[in-house]
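Repro case for the chain-ordering regression, as requested:
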Amino acid sequence: MNHLLLTAWADLIESLRARWFIVYALVFGGIVVLLFAFGLSESRVMGFTGLSRLLVTYIQLSMAILPIFVLITTVRSVAGDREAGVFEYMLSLPVSLSAWFWGRMSGRFVVVFLPVFVAMVGALLWGAIKGGETPWELFAYYTALLVALCWCFLGIGMLISTLARSSDVAQGAAFVVWLTLLLFLDLILLGVMIRESLPPEDAVALALINPLQVFRTATMMLFDPQLVLLGPTAYVILDNFGRAGYIAYAVCYPIVLGTLCAWIGYQVFKRSDLP
Amino acid sequence: MIRFQHVVKRFRRNVVLKGIDLEITRGQRVALVGSNGAGKTTLIRCLLGEYNCDGEVSIDGQNPRRFRREVLARIGFVPQLPPPLRMPVGQLIRFAASLCDSDPARIEEVAGLLGFDAPGFRGQPFVKLSGGQKQKLLIAIALGRDAELLVMDEPAANLDPKARHILFRLLAEKQQDTAMLISSHRLDEVASLVNRVVEMDQGRVVLDDEVADLVDLSSRLRCRVTMTRAEDAFARALREWHFVLADGERVWEGLVPGPDRLRFLGMLSRYAALLGGLEMLDDDDTESAA
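-- result from build under test --
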């Protein structure tokens, strides 16, 4: 079997047996159960009812939880494996560094994406059994966004893991990265900067660079196509991208960013001491 | 086969290897000894291409960092501390066998010889095995393939006397066409396994000596130990070597792997005052005499 696939499979099996994965899967499964339990699928907000409403809420919650979960679990397990001697042994086997690095990243992607996706599919199935209408377009769009978000933060996590030599430093760095991105959301630091007369172009550029903000705006766009909630900034986005253009950007940009971070991580990894 | 040419390894300002020059040829079994912090593990990691270093490390002329797959395909490695892998035993065997182009059945067979029933533990996570079982499996993965170089860090540390004997026998089968680098912080642990001793201290080679290669790795000694009086601590120590009472409460008999004779005598020396008699005969001699 191809070495990349072998490594990906090995990482998948390792992760599925890890405690963090159980917690991670329970959190996302739990969110869906809670949303059903609190009758969210029967409520109506901004024209969304039933499963569409549930999906909108689920994706908003995912945006809040997923990045920090992916970052922390990735850096903890990758840097932790290095500290515990897993790298020393596994990299004494004749596997190429590229197959090892990208195999681990691929395996890890499946592990972080699967629970989120399965929870969403479970919600749709349950809703369909209950007689609800399945919002396929919304489902496909959210799936693409979740793929992009998982890949993006996984790439950032792999970069941090290769730069930090201990799991403590890696965890601290991951938390700082997440906090910085969080602060540069439109409702926190970006709002303050605009109030302090930051040129609008700069504010929009910052919003377009921050993957969290990109994801937030993209999810917002579905229930608020004119982005009224964003205020005047919406004109810049809609005039430059258009709705379809921005949706494409929101899916492609995080994937490119994640790949770029992972690629830099790989370059650092293959040039540095491995264990 | 292996060549270290003025190898220097630094971790920031700390120089761990200070210009190592060493050559090891096929058929040589080298004990790499030295106290903690001497640089043994760092040297091994440089050899495996896991560390960048100044100077040159090559195996059959190939740099292990640049030609990773080609070089590592010829090296069997047993680490001192087993990695905390959660993957099941069966998957670890398949994973290693696939990467090394080996047959999983061959690895299971070697594990079986060492006393570890790999098929019986196929679904068990590696990390849940006992220290000895982990060691046996890692040795089986290293020996269950066509390695031309065996790099082992305290390979027999967690093994019982029977498994040690099998390990010595397996190593004996490979000694003609395989180079071995066996690391230990105690010479008596590995002395009988090797025909060359390299001692390291503070990142330098302080001793490089050939040693008499008279001990047959696969030999065994039939031993009879007589105590002057029954003593629990001495009895426990003998039981750990799988000795059994032969006569009354003071005479014990058992088999000691040939290369382990120094370790065994080291153990006996702790109870020298209680030693009433000692007989050690080559097991082949005793069998032919019978």
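Ordering looks correct now. Chain B touches chain A through 31 residues (CB under 8 Å).
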